[in-house]
What does this fold into?
Amino acid sequence: MKENIIFVAKNIEVANGSKLKYYAKDKNANSSFDVEYPIGKLVGLGVYVKTKFLQEKDISIDTVIELYNSLIKILGNNGALIPSYSENENEIALYFYAERDYDYLVNKITPFLKNNLVGKECVVKQIA
It folds into this structure.
């Protein structure tokens, strides 16, 4: 059973640094224990847009959505791509998880970001 769980976990597309945690019981010793197994091979990239910049320049959220969709297209042919986002009053974070290494992903999006009104104001960070 353990081998099946680990096989499945290794093939799930999750962020690098993720861990499979499960409870196990040793039937021979009548003891139980928690197990952590490192999984995850996707590199995480965060593109952060400051909402204050958007407000000062009177840029609509639609422009950020266009930026997001463009980045998905640019990064889309790099193995598994899992996009997501979050937002709060200070920033909108665009997240991308892909099979390539971080430097490759950054080099892929940098030319686009430098020539994009919102993109050139973004901060890009590795998140996984």
